[in-house]
Amino acid sequence: MKGLQKTERVPIMFDPSLLQKLDDYSFQNRIRTRAEAVRRLVAKGIEQEETKNADAA
Question: Of residues 26 and 57, which shows the higher confidence score?
């Protein structure tokens, strides 16, 4: 995923408590932007689901 051009915008809304968790994650992992934190978490979540589904098959 690194180095790929970002071509799509996805507007998203967060409730305050989830946004705080995102900001905490970003700070703890030295991620400069919320957008990058969201991208990383989405990629991790998808990878985890794919692994879980592969293990179940």
Answer: 26
